[in-house]
C-alpha cells in the first residue's frame, strides 16, 4: 500500500490526475466485444476508441506491454502498449505507475492480436482511478468471511458474486410482474412503529426524540397492509426490509426482505395458486424449473402436494397425534426423537415444533403444509371444517419454509381475543409475542372484506434458485464487527 501511495503521489507531482472527474470513454468493453468480435487474428479495424476498465492482469515485457481490462459486468478486453505506438515516456510511466486493480483509460485502435485476442492498441493512456489496496488472489486472499465482509472485492473478482446480484434482481422483478399481472398495487408502509405486530418475533427497539417515544423497527408489514384492504385497496403488496432481533445462522438474518400481499375475496387456496405462479415465473427468469440440490432434484413442474400437520406428524413418528393429544405424550415423542423443548410450551406449540424438526426437513418437493393449530398463527381464521385448526399453510421446498399464507382472520372480536392472549404472553416475559394494536382492531371494526394473504421470504427464494446460504444472497449482510 505504501508503494501504491507513492505512485499516486508521483502521478500528481508529474501533473497528471490520479482521480480525474472523468475520461473520454467512447465505448464500453461489452460494446467493443459486440462490435469488433468478428476480427480475425492480426486484423485491424481502423477505428480509434476510448475505453476504460480495471486492470486485472498485467505483463510488462520490454517494448510491448499487455494488460487485461475488466468492467463491472465482467467483460474483459486486452490492452496493448507498444513502444513504437505509444512512445518511450508513456510506456515508461505505464510500467512505473500502473498496478493491478487500477482503473485506466486507453485510447487507441481496435485490433486482433497475432494470437487472435481482441485488443486496443494504445496511442495514449491515463489513470482513471488509482487503487491503493492490492486485489486479493482468488485462491488465497478470498475466504468466505472476507468475501461476505468485503463484498465489493468479491464482486470484482468472482463472476458468481456478480451473477447473484443480477439473479436476485430478476427474482424481485418476477415477483412484482406476477402480482402486477393480477391487478395488485405496490405500497410502502412504516418501518418505524409504535406497536410491533404481524408476526411472532423479537423486535429491535429505538427512540423517537420528536415524540419522546419508544419505537420498534417492523417485524412484518401485515397489519398496515390489511388496513389498506379495509380502506378499499383490494389487492395490495409490499416488498421490503423486515427487522428481527434474533439469531443469525445459515437461514436467518436480522434484516431480510419479504413480500407480503393481500387479496380481497381470496382464501388460502387462491393464495397457493398465486405463490406457485410467482415461483414458476422466477424459475423461468433465472434458470430452470428443475433445481439440483444435495437432497436430490427439486421438480417445480411436478405435483405441489398438500400435507396436513397432524396426519403428517403422526406418520413420521408412527403413532396417531390429534389436536387432543396430551402435552405429556408430545414431550415423550420429543425426547424419543431428541427434539429440544421448552417446559412452558403447550400442546399446540409442541406439535408445531415437532413437525418443524422431524417432518419439514424431509419435504424436498414443493409441499403446502396446512391445518395448523390456532396458536401457530394468531392472524389466521379458524378452519371452515374444524374450529380446532386454522386456515393457513407453509410452503416447504427443499426441506425449508419458503413462504406462508392464510385465509385471513377478519372477525374483530376473535382477533381481539387472540391479540389479548398474545399481550398476556408478552406481559409474562415472551419476547416474541405480539402487542395489542388498538388501531388495527379499530380498522377491522370498520369491516374488512374476506381476504387471503401471503408472506414470502425473498432471501429464501433466492437461496432456492442459487443453492447458497442466506449470507450469499444478501448483498451486504449484517456481520459481527471486525476486531482490531
TrEMBL record:
PROSITE patterns: AA_TRNA_LIGASE_II. Mg(2+) 1 binds at residues 394, 401. It catalyses: tRNA(Lys) + L-lysine + ATP = L-lysyl-tRNA(Lys) + AMP + diphosphate. GO terms for biological process: lysyl-tRNA aminoacylation. GO terms for molecular function: ATP binding; lysine-tRNA ligase activity; magnesium ion binding; tRNA binding. Its EC number is 6.1.1.6. Binds 3 Mg(2+) ions per subunit. Its main location: cytoplasm. It is an enzyme of class 6 (ligase). Its cofactor is Mg(2+). Keywords: Aminoacyl-tRNA synthetase, ATP-binding, Cytoplasm, Ligase, Magnesium, Metal-binding, Nucleotide-binding, Protein biosynthesis. Pfam families: tRNA-synt_2, tRNA_anti-codon. One of its GO terms (cellular component) is cytosol. It is found in: Cytoplasm. InterPro entries: Aa-tRNA-synt_II, aa-tRNA-synth_II, aa-tRNA-synth_II/BPL/LPL, Lys-tRNA-ligase_II, Lys-tRNA-ligase_II_N, Lys-tRNA-synth_II_C, NA-bd_OB-fold, NA-bd_OB_tRNA. Mg(2+) 2 binds at residue 401. SUPFAM superfamilies: Class II aaRS and biotin synthetases (SSF55681), Nucleic acid-binding proteins (SSF50249). Residues 168-481 form the Aminoacyl-transfer RNA synthetases class-II family profile domain. Homodimer. Belongs to the class-II aminoacyl-tRNA synthetase family. This is Lysine--tRNA ligase. It comes from Arthrobacter sunyaminii.
